[in-house]
Amino acid sequence: MAMIRQCQRSDTERIYFIINEAARAYEGVIPADCYHQPYMPMEELNRESKRMAFFGWEVDGGLVGIMGFEPIKDVYLIRHAYVLPRWQRHGIGSKLLNHLKTLVTTSRLLVGTWADANWAIRFYQKHGFTLLADKDELLKTYWDIPQRQVETSVVLGINLIRRTR
What we know:
By secondary structure, the chain is of the alpha+beta class. It has a single domain (2-159), classed as Gcn5-related N-acetyltransferase (GNAT) (Aminopeptidase, 3-Layer(aba) Sandwich). It has helices spanning 12-22, 42-51, 92-103, 118-126, 135-142, 147-151; strands at residues 2-6, 53-59, 62-72, 75-83, 108-114, 130-131, 153-159. A seven-stranded mixed β-sheet has the order 1-2-3-4-5-7-6, sandwiched between helices. The radius of gyration is 15 Å and the shape is globular. The N and C termini lie far apart (31 Å).
């Protein structure tokens, strides 16, 4: 059985594995000075996990895809969206993204990705996101990333209708 669930602290090792396995797709695509293994060290994951919630796609009791979700200031950010390579192209990323869209309580949802990760850009565009021209300002306002990453990244956004509860 497959399902979406919010990840727990006990999932940290599996999240670490998923991120670092799936991020191998960046090797030779993003600038060489931005790619390293592990792509996300455990210390960084632990820091990031304190600021955001991870949601995962679970199949038969094991996570195969994850997506981070961070409310910050007046927006929500999609962070660290990864699916294990053998589970890609099964709609898992779409299901996770659509689930997170239902949790947004402001009107704006943003995601940053590498400018050369064309597959990621196409994925978000397929889901209604558009490339934003003010990406440098957005990256400096909502993300805490090195200047080199700002230079080599893009930001996509979508405006969602504010829901009343």
